[in-house]
Write a structure and sequence with these properties.
Shape: globular
Number of helices: 10
CATH superfamily of the largest domain: Ribonuclease Z/Hydroxyacylglutathione hydrolase-like
Helix content: 10-25%
Largest sheet: 11 strands, antiparallel
Strand order of the largest sheet: 4-3-2-1-11-10-9-8-7-6-5
CATH topology of the largest domain: Metallo-beta-lactamase, Chain A
Radius of gyration: 26 Å
Oligomer: single chain
Number of strands: 23
CATH architecture of the largest domain: 4-Layer Sandwich
Bound molecules: zinc ion
Distance between the termini: 94 Å
Length: 473
C-alpha cells in the first residue's frame, strides 16, 4: 500500500471508529436515562457543608468550611435554570481563612442561574454538573464513550467537548447511574482548574433515581458536601432571573500624596513612584483588572517600568491579577510561604483561556518577606509587616507608607458601605486584633486604604477602625 493510500485507509478507519463510538455513547446515555428516569424539574434539599474556593488559611490547607444548616436547590432542566438557597453558619473555630468569617448567627445565600446565550460557561456548567444535566448536555453533543476501571470498578465514561473546549466526562456505573462528572474550567489564578461532582447513595424517588450524597470539588478540594434528605421530582418550579448587578463605577486615579496614586475600583491598588521605577501595591481579581492597574500605574507615573508588585496575601481574589505583572517583568513581593505556592499553581496549564503570562511563557520572579521588609526608592519608603496572629491568612502582610502615614490593608478591616457612627454588636474579632497590631508596630495612620473599596468612595480614617473595634474614645 502506498503511503497515501495507507493514510486514506487510516482516516476512514478512524472515522468508522468515531461513528461506532458515537453510536455506543448514545446507547450508554439512553440506558442511563432509562435507569435514572427523566427529570424535567427537580427540587432537592438537605444539609451539609460548603467551602469557599481560594480562601484557605494558608497555601497548603483546603478551602475553608461553612456549615449549610439548610440547602434547597430547584432546577428546571427544560429552561436550563437553577436556584440554590442555603443558610450558612460558622464552622471553623477559630474562624481561620477568608469567605467573610466569622458568620454570626445565620447567613442566607442565594445563587440563581438562568442560562441564556450570553451566560458564561463557568455559570452555565452548574446545571451540567448534575446527573440529569450531564445526560441532557451529552445527548445534545457528539459524545464518545470508552470503558475505564477506577479503583476496581468498571465505568462507561461518556465524554463530550464543552463550549470552553474542555472535555466533560461522565462516569456511568454498571447500574447505568451517573457516579461522577469531571471537567476543567478556566480560573485566572489556577488556570485549567479541575471541577468534579460525585454522586452516591442513589435512592428511588417516584421512579427517579437520585443521589442522596453529592460532593463537588474545585481545584482539588471540596466546595460542597451535601446530604440530601428530600427530593421532589418533576414538580412545578419557578426560577426568576435575578437583576444584574449595577455596573461598577469607572476606575479613576487619585493622587494621595506626591508620587503616591490610588487606582480605584472594587479592589483598590496603589502606584508609588520610586524614581527609576514604579511599585504597585496589589494585583487583584482577574487578568483584565491586573492589566488595567498596570495601564493606570504607567499613566500616573509615565515613562517608568513597574519593577515590583506587592501582594498582601495569596487569596484568589487578591492574587488573580498578578499574572499580567509577571508577563510585564515585575517582581512579585510576597510572604515566603506563598512563593512555592505561586510557583506551583502558575506552572499549571492555561490552555482553556491562555493569558499573556501563559502565551509569553513568562517565568515569575519573587522577593519574599517573613516578618518585615523595607523598600526604598526616590523619596519613598514602603514598609511591609506580617500581621502576627492573623486569623484570615497565615502569610498576611500590611503595607505602610510612614512618610505619608498611609496604611494599605486587605481583609483585616473590611469597611462598611457607609462610615459607622457606633460600635457594632458583636464586634468583629479581627478589628481589636488589628488595632493591637498597629499599636505594636507603632503605626498611626492618617489614612487607611482598604483593598476592598468603601461603597461610597470615602477616605477611611483610623477613627473608623477604632469605632468598629470598640476602642474609640
Ligand atoms: Zn483574603
Amino acid at each position: 500500500m502506498s503511503p497515501k493510500r495507507f493514510m486514506i485507509a487510516a482516516v476512514a478507519g478512524c472515522l468508522t471508529m468515531q461513528f461506532a463510538q458515537a453510536q455506543d455513547a448514545k446507547a450508554v446515555l439512553d440506558a442511563a436515562q432509562k435507569a435514572m428516569g427523566k427529570l424535567n424539574t427537580v427540587e432537592y434539599s438537605g444539609s451539609g457543608a460548603d467551602f469557599t474556593l481560594g480562601q484557605a488559611f494558608n497555601p497548603s490547607s483546603a478551602w475553608p468550611k461553612f456549615n449549610d444548616k439548610s440547602y434547597v436547590r430547584q432546577i428546571d432542566f427544560d429552561k436550563n435554570a437553577s436556584h440554590m438557597h442555603r443558610i450558612r453558619t460558622q464552622a471553623n473555630d477559630p474562624p481561620r481563612g477568608g469567605g467573610l468569617q466569622p458568620i454570626v448567627g445565620e447567613r442566607p445565600e442565594d445563587q440563581v442561574i438562568v442560562v441564556g446565550d450570553k451566560t458564561p460557561w463557568n455559570q452555565a456548567i452548574e446545571v451540567v454538573m448534575t446527573p440529569q444535566g450531564f445526560l441532557n448536555a451529552a445527548s445534545k453533543s457528539s459524545a464518545t464513550v470508552k470503558k475505564q476501571t477506577v479503583a476496581g470498578k468498571n465505568f462507561q465514561v461518556v465524554s463530550f467537548a464543552a463550549p470552553n473546549k474542555a472535555q466533560v466526562m461522565g462516569y456511568i456505573n454498571a447500574q447505568n447511574l451517573v457516579e461522577k462528572i469531571a471537567t476543567k474550567i478556566d480560573n485566572p489564578l489556577l488556570g485549567d482548574m479541575p471541577y468534579e461532582s460525585e454522586f452516591s447513595d442513589y435512592k428511588s424517588v417516584n421512579g427517579i433515581q437520585f443521589p442522596m450524597h453529592i460532593v463537588q470539588k474545585q481545584g482539588g478540594y471540596p466546595i460542597l458536601d451535601l446530604n440530601v434528605s428530600d427530593v421532589k421530582a418533576n414538580v412545578p418550579v419557578t426560577i426568576q432571573a435575578s437583576n444584574p448587578p449595577a455596573a461598577p463605577a469607572a476606575p479613576t486615579t487619585k493622587k494621595l500624596a506626591d508620587g503616591v496614586f490610588l487606582l480605584t475600583g472594587a479592589y483598590q491598588s496603589l502606584a508609588v513612584d520610586f524614581k527609576d521605577y514604579i511599585v504597585v501595591i496589589e494585583g487583584p481579581q482577574t487578568e483584565a483588572r491586573g492589566t488595567a492597574v498596570i495601564e493606570m500605574a504607567k499613566a500616573a507615573i509615565p515613562g517608568k517600568p513597574i519593577k515590583y508588585v506587592i501582594n498582601t496575601h495569596n487569596h484568589i481574589d487578591h492574587s488573580s491579577g498578578l499574572r499580567p505583572f509577571v508577563a510585564e517583568g515585575a517582581i512579585v513581593v510576597t510572604n515566603a510561604i506563598n512563593k512555592p505556592y505561586f510557583e506551583r499553581v502558575w506552572k499549571d496549564p492555561h490552555t482553556l483561556n491562555p493569558d499573556k503570562m501563559a502565551m509569553m511563557h513568562a517565568k515569575p520572579r519573587f522577593e519574599t518577606m517573613t516578618q518585615t521588609k523595607v523598600m526604598t526608592g526616590g523619596d519613598h519608603t514602603i514598609e511591609l509587616h506580617h500581621v502576627d496572629g492573623t486569623m484570615h491568612n497565615e502569610g498576611m502582610m500590611l503595607v505602610w507608607l510612614p512618610k505619608e502615614r498611609i496604611l494599605v490593608e486587605a481583609d483585616e478591616f473590611n469597611v462598611l458601605p457607609q462610615a459607622p457612627t457606633a460600635t457594632p454588636n458583636p464586634i468583629h474579632p479581627y478589628h481589636p486584633h488589628f488595632v493591637d497590631t498597629l499599636d505594636k508596630l507603632k503605626i498611626d495612620p492618617q489614612m487607611i486604604i482598604p483593598i476592598h473599596a468603601p461603597g461610597d468612595g470615602r477616605m477611611v480614617t483610623k477613627n473608623e477602625l477604632l469605632i468598629m473595634a470598640g476602642r474609640a474614645h
